[in-house]
Design brief:
Chain lengths: ~110, ~110
């Protein structure tokens, strides 16, 4: 799997949009971009994933650049409960036989 | 509600003792995984299973064993051969297919006494 680069930490004011960047310049054509988050002492929670088109669900939006070398996860109205470590993962599904490679992620702190 | 359950939430192991961590899912997923997470670190794959009665070693399988007798269940045994078992253990499952999102359980924290 290709490697990703994320900022170590970010802060966001409650109620504002949180924009979390991820660089994946070596991504290959059949690799998806996945985002997970992990609240302290809990299991990782799936947020969203995409291949090349922008995606939106009830939790977040994922914006992937046209060259697919970077992406941004957007939490439109951050709340205190969104404080977590956010992981950007590039992954090629292979029939259930491979691991997700979690890096250090971005520690997002939402402030009141 | 569909989901993945892990028990117990905390587990204590004495030196030389084997302990088994439970993982159950009712999502009808074929594939299941066990990861280990150490403080401030990412997740490392211990074992995975694509189908009942079949499983494969991950990156750090030494000192661990698993079984997959039922689709819903994938227990992990931490044996006495695992010399540094203190960690946060996470179970996940996914559908086998083109977009295999993995869904995680709440985790079990294992501590050695």
């Amino acid at each position: 799997d290709a490697k990703t680069t994320q900022p170590t930490s970010m802060d966001c004011a409650e109620g504002r949009a949180a924009n979390l960047p991820c660089n994946h310049s070596t991504i290959s054509g059949n690799e998806y971009v996945y985002w997970y988050r992990q609240i302290h002492s809990q299991g990782p929670q799936y947020i969203i994933h995409g291949l090349k088109n922008n995606e939106t669900n009830e939790m977040a939006s994922l914006i992937i650049t046209e060259d697919r070398k970077s992406s941004t996860l957007i939490l439109p109205h951050a709340t205190l409960r969104d404080t977590a470590v956010y992981y950007c993962i590039v992954h090629r599904p292979q029939g259930g036989s491979e691991k997700l490679v979690f890096g250090k992620g971005t520690k997002l702190t939402v402030n009141p | 509600d569909g989901g993945i359950t892990q028990s117990p939430k905390y587990l204590f192991r004495k030196e030389g003792q084997n302990v088994t961590l439970s993982c159950e899912q009712n999502l009808n997923h074929d594939a299941m995984y066990w990861y280990r997470q150490d403080p401030g670190q990412g997740l490392r794959l211990i074992y995975y299973s694509q189908i009942v009665n079949d499983f494969q070693k991950g990156d750090i399988a030494e000192g661990y064993s698993v079984s997959r007798e039922k689709k819903e269940s994938f227990p992990l045994t931490v044996t006495s051969a695992q010399k540094n078992p203190t960690a946060f253990y996470l179970c996940a499952s996914s559908i086998r297919g083109t977009q295999e999102t993995q869904y995680f359980g709440p985790g079990t924290r294992l501590l050695v006494l």
